[in-house]
Specification:
The structure holds 2 protein chains of 2 kinds. In chain A, a hairpin with a 5-residue loop joins strand 7 and strand 8. Chain A is an all-beta fold. Chain A has no helices and 11 strands. By secondary structure, chain B is mainly beta. Chain B has no helices and 12 strands. In chain B, strand 5 and strand 6 form a beta hairpin. Chain B is globular and about 40 Å long. The mean pLDDT of chain B is 92. Classes of the chains: A mainly beta, B mainly beta. Chains A and B meet through strand 5, strand 9 and strand 10 of A and strand 5, strand 6, strand 10 and strand 11 of B.
């Protein structure tokens, strides 16, 4: 009953360091998403993917890259971390269009950039 | 662009009473979905209720119901018989029928008092 799993759950980075957040889903979903959540701002979409090998920019893509080499995995990369990227990151997945569009979320990854 | 507004940053209610959380949105679309998500202290996002814009009937899930006013672009959540476990952040979200991402409001922090 794993659903959407994110690793790591907590990470502290120094400014300029790089890291990758991994998202895995076991529901055979086509669509996957990366959101960030900042205080008072709700969730904002960073990047998303509508299928294996595809990616697209969301609302706040700058400073991030993503890859979807396998259907079940969606990676979010920070090439040169900045303090402004301190946030909680949520991965999510869904079946896709015309499914009711229910999105299933992971438990979040806390990232602090110092 | 679609926007979602939750005008109540914080609310509180006594256990067993009823509370209504407000949400308004802005769109020129005719077909779309609306959601309420609950985020407890664990930070996991949990779907509470979903409404399809083409349906006139308001969605209901046990103690949770919505008042969907399409013309007014309003989508409020009513929680009846409030329980301590309802204490959480509540996010209203909008998704166009043929779009790939979900837009969130800033959230309402609900506290249920014993």
């Amino acid at each position: 009953n794993a659903g959407v799993t994110q690793t790591p759950k907590f990470r502290v980075l120094k400014t300029g360091q790089s890291m990758t957040l991994l998202c895995a889903q076991d529901m055979n979903h086509e669509y996957m998403y990366w959101y960030r959540q900042d205080p008072g701002m709700g969730l904002r979409l960073i990047h998303y993917s509508v299928g294996e090998g595809t990616t697209a920019k969301g609302e706040v893509p700058d400073g991030y890259n993503v890859s979807r080499l396998k259907k079940q995995n969606f990676l979010l990369g920070l090439e040169s971390a900045a303090p402004s990227q301190t946030s909680v990151y949520f991965c999510a997945s869904s079946v896709g269009h015309y499914s009711g569009n229910t999105i299933y979320f992971g438990e979040g990854s806390w990232l602090t950039v110092v | 662009a679609q926007t979602v507004t939750q005008s109540q940053p914080e609310m509180s209610v006594q256990e067993a009473e009823t509370v209504t959380l407000s949400c308004t949105y802005d769109t020129s679309e005719n077909n779309y979905y609306l959601f309420w998500y609950k985020q407890p202290p664990s930070r996991q996002m949990i779907l509470v209720i979903r409404q399809e814009a083409y349906k006139q009937q308001n969605a209901t899930e046990n103690r949770f119901s919505v008042n969907f006013q399409k013309a007014a672009k309003s989508f409020s959540l009513k929680i009846s018989d409030s329980q301590l476990g309802d204490t959480a952040m509540y996010f209203c979200a909008f998704m166009k029928f043929d779009m790939d991402d979900m837009r969130f409001g800033a959230g309402t922090r609900l506290t249920v008092k014993p």
